[in-house]
Design goal:
CATH class of the largest domain: Mainly Beta
Distance between the termini: 61 Å
Strand content: 25-35%
Structural class: alpha+beta
Order of helices and strands: EEHEEEEHHHH
Largest sheet: 5 strands, mixed, barrel
CATH topology of the largest domain: Archaeosine Trna-guanine Transglycosylase, Chain: A, domain 4
CATH superfamily of the largest domain: LON domain-like
Number of helices: 5
Number of domains: 2
């Protein structure tokens, strides 16, 4: 692995700045990745898998992250903040999101591990506090349901509340990636609220019908 390139870990659940995510690692390429990251005191980039990614072909080392890759070209730098072994024998790690990253020079190693040169992406603006308390209540419910209850959740900043909801809500993948790619925090905040409205409307439309 090049000293300039770092691993890429595509997941169905994204990671956003300021958020933590527990993972169970079992594939050899990712066990090796974790070992390398801890030895080198290095992070890796978590990026969201594209819909239908299981049908994507391996790309050439000189290709960029485009529609031909199984994952999106913008993700988040992850640092391992905790690790241990579960009762089932699997390696459990907890990662924390740093800055968002654009992936360049994407390639795949012989063992299947993806690597890329990440470029930090700036963020600007402020989320605002409109609907913050209702969104915080929603997040605390989701954390409980997912077994991620955090006593510090009540102290999350509005940015953390927003980013956790982008991570964990069942928003369509394309909408989720649009929010991740948005570098203006106010626009991401407004986009999240629109996505929640759309989610509620879809649930209402697919609700139980009377017979």
């Amino acid at each position: 692995m090049s000293t300039e390139a770092i691993p890429v870990f595509p997941l169905n659940t994204p990671l956003l700045p300021g958020c933590r995510l527990p993972l169970q690692i079992f594939e050899k390429r990712y066990l090796d990745m974790v070992a390398w990251c801890m030895k080198q005191d290095q992070g890796f980039v978590v990026t969201l898998l594209q819909p239908g990614s299981e049908r994507r072909e391996v790309i050439r080392p000189d290709q960029e992250a485009t529609e031909t890759t199984p994952f999106y070209g913008i993700g988040t730098l992850a640092r391992i903040v905790d690790f241990g072994q579960r009762e089932n024998g699997l390696l459990a790690i907890s990662i924390e999101g740093g800055p968002r990253m654009e992936l360049t020079d994407v390639s795949q190693q012989a063992d299947g591990l993806w690597t890329a040169h990440p470029l930090p992406l700036p963020e600007s603006g402020e989320t605002g506090d409109s609907d913050l308390e209702s969104l915080r209540d929603l997040l605390e419910q989701i954390l409980r349901v997912n077994g991620m209850k955090d006593d510090a959740a009540e102290d999350y900043t509005s940015e953390q509340v927003m980013n956790y909801l982008v991570m964990l809500l069942p928003i369509p993948t394309t909408e989720k990636q649009e929010l991740i790619s948005c570098g203006n925090l106010h626009e991401r905040w407004q986009g999240l609220k629109r996505a929640i409205t759309g989610l509620i409307e879809r649930q209402d439309e697919s609700g139980p019908s009377s017979h």
